[in-house]
Each structure stands twice: as structure tokens, then as C-alpha cells.
Specification:
Largest sheet of chain A: 4 strands, antiparallel
Oligomer: homodimer
Largest interface: A-B, 42 and 42 residues
Number of helices of chain A: 9
Strand content of chain A: 15-25%
Strand order of the largest sheet of chain A: 1-8-3-6
Shape of chain A: globular
Chain lengths: 256, 256
DNA sequence: AAATCGACTTGACTTGGATCAAACCGGTCC
DNA sequence: GGACCGGTTTGATCCAAGTCAAGTCGATTT
């Protein structure tokens, strides 16, 4: 704190208009003068290291954040002290909205590796939104989408099978990487097995076993955090719970 | 349809200012002229019967709703065709926000018994919010709260113990009834065991058994849908998972 | 009062995944 | 090189909750 303003701040303050994430981010659908107004709210941040926290439980709402490089996780801590991962946030994804309801954060946001964020002071954002209907609508839409994601996640957690959850998880990540213009078939998981477990409501051993099983069955190839999707159709089937029977039948056959 | 406008429409169009739910509802914190502007958006509706649907999956976003009497459930339907209950909505609670992200509903809302809603056409609501910063903020806040509720629910679903979930559920309902000025210690469940099961990610038999267990242990009294909280402290302990050991120890003792 | 029906409870059995425990793998640091 | 360490895999065992199958209860109808 109280550092002299670093010289590269100029570089960091690149505009949304030039950002490759523009259409996947809060500015999506906002143009011209309105975009300039929104840009005035955005503060770009110095790089973060693995484990750096953007906010903690109980912090008053100051800003919401958008990952611009790297991945973040948000973790909630229940009264028993257990951590559970609420979500993983890839570039272009907004987080920190959890404090809007009460004015205080109920979870904490942690960088999973080297990362960078755009910070939007909430007061300014809301003020600007009050003047720009397009931004107001977009803000509501983004919150709605985040809520939709929560509901999908909720659905995943009520689905029973562990390997279904893993299959869905891998599929979902692939889809998100693809949208970012990266390879969806092969990627590096930015999180540990334990973090996946806490996200999916499973024990870490179960996560590991499920990965191994999908690997054995030839749907994906897993080596540590390196994942490759080999049979996307089968993975999709596994994700929607169709595979269970098929596989059992095949196993029975091969045994008998 | 095309009914002549019923005479009691006047009665139905009672103002938010006179409504007992005012401070527990969307208008909370909005006063004077602003409240009048909000009221102009609200349409009051004829009574609904058990099973009536307000919207279905895929319906385009028209309105959001607030229960004014009775209880609603929102249910999501996943691609396997299974229904899971996303939430129960008591008077004063806003729902239908699920369509804001995409413009289409991803769940359906069903009355659990005789009920009544206030309907707020979303276009008008957003338009009015754009002109009233207090409403804009309140709308964001309500969405944030709804998202917080989802996250608490998510936490419940990752907690393992079935009776913990039931204890939390009963506690939560009691709390909500109390806020509505009704008795929190004794109430009638507006939903079936099956609906609770689909909400908590359990089998209906497990729900039934968990109720019986909490009953046996003297925390609550259950007779069909009638629930009475007898030992709130023990229930609270059960809800946070502290009871498991205690009870087991006592059982062991009484057996030995 | 008997018959029907939906909601609920209870019992017996089975199983998926948690838990405990041990080994393994790939970095990094002496 | 070897020791160490966090993350990961794999094996063995156990238990909570799911599934299947009877009942029971209460409300409504005949």
C-alpha cells in the first residue's frame, strides 16, 4: 500500500473495447458512448499469485470482479468450518455478486494460479447503471445467468452418481474453454482434486476414482491435471446418466 | 377468458402501501412517490387453486411474481425428465427471476394450495427501475438475496446427513413463518413429503424416516403435515450436525 | 359402514460412496 | 543424487441412504 503508482498502470488500463473477452464479458451488447461510460468504472489490477484473496467472508461490498486472466474459486465456509467451493471463475466471468443481497461478502474469492482481474467498484457501477438502461439490463442479465448456473449446479448435486458429476464437470469446463477460443478437447485443470470434490459434494478419493473410471472406459484420458476428451458422445451420455446400464451390461458380458 | 372484468377487481387492486407484507416484500425501503410508481406496475391476480401453474419451462419472460397468499414451488426438469424442487415461495417472496438470464423460464411455478400472487410485468418493472435508483438497488438486492438462498440450499445439499437437512428445513420454515407474523413453533407444512424429498435431494422414505427420528428424539412433534417444534435448541444442534455424536452416545448408554 | 385413493410410515435388503490407510508420482530443495 | 512434500491414486471396509415391498392412516365417495 502507498506504493508509487507503477509505470505499467497505463498498460493495464487497456480499454474493454480492445479486450478479446469483450463479447463474453459484462460489456457484451454495450457499445459506443455507453461502453465508454462503463469503461470509466473498470479498474484493472496488478497480477495476482496463486492463493491471493480478493475478498473474505464478512468484508463489506466494495467491488465486483471479472477474471481477465487465470481462474478463481469462490469458497463458502459454513458454521462447522468446512469449506465448500461455490464456483470456479474463468476469464470473462463476473463474481463477487454474493455481497449484493446483504452488503457483505458471504464467501471468499481466491486465485488458483497466476491471474488478473478487472475490478468494478459497485457503487459506481450501480450509479452508472442507473443512467444507462443497457447496462442496467445487462447487469440484471448477468446476475440472472449466475443464478442459472447456481441452479444447474444444484441439479448436479442432487443427481446421484459420482461419475455423472465428473462427466458433467469435464464437459462444462470444455465448453467454457471452447467459448474462450481455447481448445476444449484438451486442457489443464486449474484446480486440485480436493477443490473439485468440494465443488461437487464428493470425497476427493471419489473424484479421483471417477476420473480413473472415465479414463478406463475410454471417454477421456487423464494424467494428473491434464485432461483430454476422447469420446465426446460417450462422455455426454455419461453426463446424462445413460451410460450406467450400458457399461454394466458390457461388463457382465465380458465376465460371462 | 374474455370474462367481463369482475367487480372485485377493485378490491384486488389494494395498494402495496396498505399491504401487511410491505416491509417483507419488494417495496421494502421504497416510500412516497417512488412507492406509487412501483405500485403502478403491480397487477393483483385472481385466486389460484392447488396445482395451477404461473409459467412453464420455455415460456418467454413476461412477469415476475410475488406470492401474496399461500405457497408456491418452483420445479426444474432436467433432461432425464426428473423434477427437482428449486424452492418454496411464501408470501412476500419474489420468484420467476430465473428467466432474466436468458429471457426464457427454465423452471415452472406451481401453487401448492389456494393462493394469490402479485404479478409484475418485467418490462415495466425494469423501465421503472431505470428511473428510480431506489427500486433499481432494491431489485438488485432482492436478486442477490435469492442467489444467497440458492447458495445456502447448495450448502444443505452437500451436507451429508439426511436428518440435518430436515432439521434445517424445519428451522428455516419456522423462521420464515415467524417473520410473517405467524406462529413459528407450530405450523402446517404446505408441501408433501415427496416435494420435500425433491427439494432436499433425498428419497421420500428418507424424509419420512428423518421426521420420525426427530420426533422420537423429542425435538419436534410430527403428525402428518402438522409440525411442532418442541426443543428448538436441540433442533438447532441437529441442524448444524452437532447432535449426531451426542445422540449416539446416549443410545449406546441406554442399550449397555 | 365399506370401498377407494393418495399421502405417509415402516421394515428388509442392497449399494454407492465415505472413511481409513497405504503407496505413488513429480517437483523442489538441500 | 536423495529427502521431502503436496497432490494423487488405489485398496479394503463400513455405513447412510436408496430401493423394493408391505402396511397404515385419513379424507372422500358411495
Amino acid at each position: 500500500m502507498n506504493d508509487p503508482i507503477p509505470l505499467d498502470l497505463v498498460r493495464l488500463r487497456r480499454s474493454c473495447a480492445e479486450c478479446s473477452l469483450q463479447q463474453l464479458c459484462l460489456p457484451a451488447g454495450i457499445e459506443g458512448e455507453d461502453l465508454k461510460r462503463l469503461e470509466a468504472v473498470v479498474q484493472r489490477r496488478r497480477p495476482l499469485e496463486a492463493g491471493d484473496r480478493l475478498f473474505r467472508v464478512g468484508d463489506p461490498l466494495q467491488s465486483v470482479f471479472i477474471a481477465s486472466e487465470g481462474t478463481f474459486k469462490t469458497v463458502g465456509i459454513n458454521e462447522s468450518g468446512e469449506e465448500h467451493v461455490l464456483g470456479f471463475h474463468l476469464p470473462g466471468e463476473l463474481f463477487g455478486l454474493d455481497a449484493i443481497g446483504t452488503g457483505y461478502h458471504r464467501c471468499e474469492a481466491i486465485a488458483l494460479g497466476k491471474a488478473r482481474v478487472c475490478e468494478l467498484p459497485f457503487g459506481e457501477l450501480a450509479g452508472t447503471a442507473a443512467q444507462l438502461p443497457s447496462l442496467q439490463l445487462q447487469l440484471l442479465r448477468v446476475m440472472g445467468q449466475s443464478s442459472n448456473r447456481d441452479q444447474d449446479h444444484l441439479d448436479v448435486l442432487t443427481r446421484r452418481q459420482a461419475s455423472e458429476r465428473i462427466a458433467l464437470f469435464v464437459q462444462g469446463l470444455a465448453e467454457r474453454y471452447r467459448r474462450l477460443g481455447q481448445a476444449g478437447n484438451e486442457f489443464q485443470l486449474p484446480m486440485t482434486r480436493d477443490e473439485i470434490a468440494r465443488y461437487l459434494g464428493l470425497a476427493l478419493e471419489t473424484v479421483s476414482r471417477s476420473f480413473s473410471r472415465l479414463h478406463e472406459e475410454g471417454m477421456i484420458s487423464v494424467r494428473g491435471r491434464r485432461v483430454r476428451i476422447i469420446n465426446a458422445a460417450a462422455l455426454h451420455a455419461a453426463a446424462s446418466g445413460c451410460e450406467a446400464e450400458t457399461v454394466r451390461v458390457e461388463k457382465r458380458r465380458s465376465r460371462g
